Amino acid sequence: MKRLMTLVYKLDLSFQVISGVVLAFMMLVTLADIIMRAFGKPIVGGIELICFAGAVAIGFALPYSSYKKAHIYVDFLLEKLSLRSRTTLQVITKCVGVLLFLFIGYNFVLYGFDLIKTGEVSAGLRLPYYPITFGLAVSCFLESLTLLCDVMKLINRGER
């Protein structure tokens, strides 16, 4: 179990690094586009690149954010519960999250294969959509693993 949690952490961290690099790329493309527009030569397809990169930056940041519990967490209700009830409720919600992200990831895979079959590409740069779709699917599956590790921690410790 410890090996799985270490592997999931390293994968989460890798996806976070990719997300950070993509975010820096978005800033550079935006800056270059603004400067080039001043000279009357905007970057062709800049908006498409930013949109693709935004999907990757947000999707790939999700597992690490979940691992670090960096998301908004409203616990006023949980504070009123006993430790056992709190743990039970957290296990149930995380299990629902695992199922949700498995479902989303599976549908991203189906959508990616559909995009390959239809050959759909972006309008300006003619970039295919399916690599982004499959990347987001992998990120969703990793989020499921991250939540599953949280469930295992909760069950083993009996606390948050």
Task: Describe this entry's structure for a reader.
By secondary structure, the chain is mostly helical. The chain has one domain (2-157). It contains 4 helices and no strands. It has helices spanning 2-38, 46-67, 83-118, 130-157. The longest helix is centred in the N-terminal third of the chain and has 37 residues, at 2-38. The two termini are 17 Å apart. The mean pLDDT is 93.
Return residue spans where pLDDT drops below 50 for at least 5 consecutive residues.
none
Helix and strand composition category: mainly alpha
Radius of gyration: 20 Å
The count of β-strands is 0
Number of domains: 1
H/E order of the elements?
HHHH
Average pLDDT for all residues: 93
Strand content: under 5%
What count of helical segments does DSSP give?
Answer: 4
User: Portion of residues in helices?
Assistant: over 70%
Question: Biggest sheet, open or closed, and with what strands and sense?
Answer: none
End-to-end separation in angstroms reads 17 Å
C-alpha geometry? elongated
In short:
This protein is an all-alpha fold and 160 residues long. It is 77% helix and 0% strand.
Topology:
Layout (H helix, E strand, L loop, with lengths): L1 H37 L7 H22 L15 H36 L11 H28 L3
Provide key terms for this protein.
elongated, 160 residues, single chain, mainly alpha
